Write the structure tokens for this entry.
Amino acid sequence: MIRKLSEHSRLTARDVAELRKLPMMTRVLDPDDDIVRQGDRPTSSALVLEGLVARYHLLPDGRRQYLSYHLAGDLPDTQALFVDRMDHAVCAIGPAVVGLIPHAALFAAFERRSSLAGAVWRETLIDAAIFREAITNNSSRGPTARMAHLFCELVYRSKAAKLTTSHDCSAPIGLRQLGETLGLSLATVNRSLAELRANGTADLQNGRITIRDWKTLSDIGQFQPTYLHLRKPLDP
Amino acid sequence: MIRKLSEHSRLTARDVAELRKLPMMTRVLDPDDDIVRQGDRPTSSALVLEGLVARYHLLPDGRRQYLSYHLAGDLPDTQALFVDRMDHAVCAIGPAVVGLIPHAALFAAFERRSSLAGAVWRETLIDAAIFREAITNNSSRGPTARMAHLFCELVYRSKAAKLTTSHDCSAPIGLRQLGETLGLSLATVNRSLAELRANGTADLQNGRITIRDWKTLSDIGQFQPTYLHLRKPLDP
DNA sequence: CGACCGCTTGATCCTAGTCAAGGGTGGTGG
DNA sequence: CCACCACCCTTGACTAGGATCAAGCGGTCG
């Protein structure tokens, strides 16, 4: 499962052996459970084993700004490895399972195999690329395009992670949360979603994103997957 | 100059010695010159020596989305160390000077002193934190608050980098660029700026941001500097 | 069976975008 | 040296699109 790193990095057999040796405590989460909170000083990092996990900022008025979503195989809080305090929180979106790996164990593995450090570092850089894309998405595209882009990204990443083979993926996201991701009101989210449904490009139902017309949808969302930096990009 | 890293990381004398040995080619830039372009595969990383530098996405219609600003001492394209292709570009905002350090030299230094790798890694993680804050800023705050937040961030970082001691900093940013940073039209940018001028909290003139009332401005922009992860935060 | 929660839809308001015009400044060329 | 031009900032009028408010619907869980 950890071998999602090899989507973007070449790992040797010894790297993989080192990864397998990492101690890990699994933790089962209900929807909306926090894994870490803003201000925490975690001593271990989470690896998503199952489900969907998200990072978010807590705003002064209690609302949230969701920042990114993380699928099985992702490391959603590697930031804490090198930075004292969490400036954001991480929570489960649907039911999820995460593995907690002590920082000390990770550092030790990095010492032994610096290529591992490189792979994790690269992972954090790709996270940053996803954040940048979110800035552009939420700042320069209209509501429907934003939503289309997000759907494309989630499905594309799901496929890259071999979590799905068809044009859909699990995403137990509520419309309110979608709004707090895209910077839109609940009403607009709904109308944009209705638009995507109406033109037959995509749908979100029962916690599942379905893409019916990839070409048109990725056009609407101006989705260009290069920023995800896969070693071998997917076609569809 | 490189010792800006010590704002957030503890460096030993030997780390510093290693940094001083790095080979570097300086390059002088006019306003708007690109340092790297989207799609490039750079073989060296830039260190800002003078002036202001920005990252941006190029949009299909030719407009830009500015993503972050980088002051003297920053490493604006460390991403390229571990990722094949640039997914964004980096350009000079005003006149600027950068130092180009070959990736090979950096990797060699990391091998010799892994604490250096950690410091640079941490720097990239703080970049990511700045991106996250930009998502929140552009998605969940009104025009004036966005601008206030950006001004606070730039001045705060300038002070942290010892580039200024008063409540102002050099920022040769045009209003169009401000708009392409904050996701606002030129007209709105101007009106929001007028508002900040009118209530005596801040100003932008002759390529210089001046903050007249820090307390009120940071209130308007909901600016909380924790996400910058300085080892010792500033008060004012 | 009832209450609650999340989705859906409609009506209204208001904010930010668009369009258009004017003013200041610096640079270039006559 | 001056005239012209280009660029950027500034301001106003109008418009459109998204936020807000409000109500109805449908499923689920107690």
Summary: Strands of chain B lie at 25-29, 34-36, 44-50, 53-58, 64-70, 89-92, 96-102, 168-170, 202-205, 208-211.
